[in-house]
Amino acid sequence: MLERTIVIVKPDGVKRGLVGEVIKRIENKDLKITRLRMIYPTTECIEQLYDVHKGKSFYEDLVKFMSSGPIVAMVVEGDEAVRVVRNLIGSTDGREALPGTIRGDYALSIRENIVHAADSTERAEYEIKIVFSETCGDF
Q1: For 28-85, what is each residue's pLDDT tens digit?
Q2: Order of strands across the sheet with 115-117?
Q3: Active-site residue flag, 53
Q4: CATH code assigned at 9
Q5: In total, how many domains does the chain have?
Q6: Catalytic pick from 113, 116, 118, 128?
Q7: Using alpha carbons only, what angle is made at residue 75 by residues 74 and 76, rounded to the nearest 5 degrees?
Q8: Mean pLDDT computed over every residue of the chain
Q9: Rounded CA separation 62/116 (Å)
Q10: With contact defined as beta carbons under 8 Å apart, do 67 and 122 qualify?
Q11: How crowded is the C-beta side of 49, counted as CA atoms within 13 Å?
Q12: Statement: the pTM of the whole predicted model exceeds 0.85
């Protein structure tokens, strides 16, 4: 089933020059990148993006980290895109992610894990609207 999702290269991935590697792995899975945007996101944008984690112990640090530098956001389309992308990026904790996944190969910690991706089509649509809005940030 054709789906679309969002993938974000986090500030650590941008800083380490891994944007091209992430794009390459997405395209190698025959997924299509239909939108691409590099921005320096506002704190408000990141708070909306991670609203499901508000009140959790790591929320404030996550917001601070994600708004600390530029991010690269992309809309990715393909057959079962959400599931395929989640498998491609690996477990949230990079120390537990399998080798061959983006996080397994490049993540330094649970926070500095290179990429973010939506966990459902509904969440993907919500996050796309936030990150691709004119108020999310600029570069």
Answers
A1: 999 999 999 999 999 999 999 999 999 999 999 999 999 999 999 999 999 999 999 9
A2: 115-117, 2-9, 71-79, 32-41, 137-138
A3: no
A4: 3.30.70.141
A5: 1
A6: 116
A7: 110
A8: 96
A9: 12
A10: no
A11: 30
A12: yes
